[in-house]
Structure to design on (328 residues):
């Protein structure tokens, strides 16, 4: 599969819903977006929450659906289910360090038994057929004593995996410390032809370029950095293309993005979810906006989307009138 850009939106657990994926795509620069983690049993039983997480639309393409489970679970069948419901790519989660995923023998626990994991992925590749790329997202290893990512990536390539994404930390690190660029580079060296996508700590366009230069990875997956700045993909793609990153949006531009996020949440999730979600997400947006504590508090206290819209439009009107980047 040829992507328009080498920048991917990560499957951010609890955050990568349809509205947010479409928002990031509209901002520009996204080559591929991924759903939240999908439990293989839940999708096959078509439980409502799993169906919500897997919901897509015409504006959400190309889409990867990320599945998790153990070698004993019906992941091949779940992969076929995902393809039938719009997935252009099947991604197998081998990197999630969250307890509720690992306790089901999925996520990063797949790193602990590489042979069984490779056999599982082989079965998934065969189940979906040659026309649907299967990828894997992994960490460097469970801990520093078991850095299996290079060997595992090479074995996954042998059974037909189209690409691997590597988060540059071990499972026991979770999100602590800095990413290990040398570890990602070792995975790049270990595979023959498939692209390796680097992941971790990309908060600014220069971070993505530095990762690609240091590791030789052919793309970058952005996760938490996108939560505060959905426009990060556009700015990074400009830097990769031209050598110059697009400027950060001013306050008015950022407020328009938040308003658009609210509209998309209402369209795809409804009033209750929209209000709950934006009240949580506003703290992420606020990290890029300067001194906006009153704005964040007003959004968190709002009881309806109409109240949220009134607050945002009031701040937008003031920002446009002053023509400045912050309101003090």
């Amino acid at each position: 599969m040829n992507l328009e850009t080498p920048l991917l939106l990560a499957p951010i657990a609890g955050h990568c819903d349809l509205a947010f994926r479409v928002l990031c795509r509209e901002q520009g620069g996204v080559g591929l977006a991924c759903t939240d983690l999908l439990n293989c049993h839940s999708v096959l039983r078509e439980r409502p929450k799993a169906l919500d997480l897997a919901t897509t639309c015409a504006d959400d393409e190309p889409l990867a659906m990320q599945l998790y489970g153990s070698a004993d679970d019906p992941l091949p069948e779940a992969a076929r289910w995902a393809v039938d419901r719009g997935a252009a790519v099947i991604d197998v989660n081998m990197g999630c360090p969250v307890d509720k995923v690992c306790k089901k023998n999925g996520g990063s626990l797949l790193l602990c038994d590489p042979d069984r994991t490779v056999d599982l992925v082989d079965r998934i590749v065969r189940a979906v057929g040659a026309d649907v790329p299967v990828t894997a997202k992994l960490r460097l290893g469970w801990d520093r004593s078991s850095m299996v990512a290079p060997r595992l990536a090479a074995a996954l390539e042998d059974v037909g995996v189209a690409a691997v994404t590597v988060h540059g930390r071990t499972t026991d690190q979770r999100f602590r410390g800095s990413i290990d660029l040398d570890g990602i580079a070792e995975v790049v060296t270990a595979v023959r032809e498939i692209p390796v996508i680097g992941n971790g700590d990309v908060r600014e366009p220069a971070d993505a370029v530095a990762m690609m230069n240091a590791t030789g990875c052919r793309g970058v997956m952005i996760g938490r950095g996108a939560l505060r700045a959905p426009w990060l993909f556009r700015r990074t793609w400009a830097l990769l293309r031209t050598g110059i990153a697009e400027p950060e949006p001013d306050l008015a531009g950022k407020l328009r993005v938040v308003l658009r996020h609210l509209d998309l949440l209402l369209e795809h999730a409804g009033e209750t979810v929209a209000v709950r979600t934006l009240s949580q997400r506003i703290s992420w947006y606020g990290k890029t906006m300067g001194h906006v504590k009153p704005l964040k508090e007003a959004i968190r206290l709002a009881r309806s989307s109409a109240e949220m819209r009134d607050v945002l439009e009031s701040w937008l009107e003031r920002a446009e009138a002053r023509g400045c980047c912050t309101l003090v």
Summary: The radius of gyration is 20 Å. The CA atoms of residues 70 and 86 lie 23 Å apart. The longest helix spans residues 251-268. The beta strands are 7-9, 32-39, 63-68, 89-94, 134-139, 163-167, 196-199, 219-222.
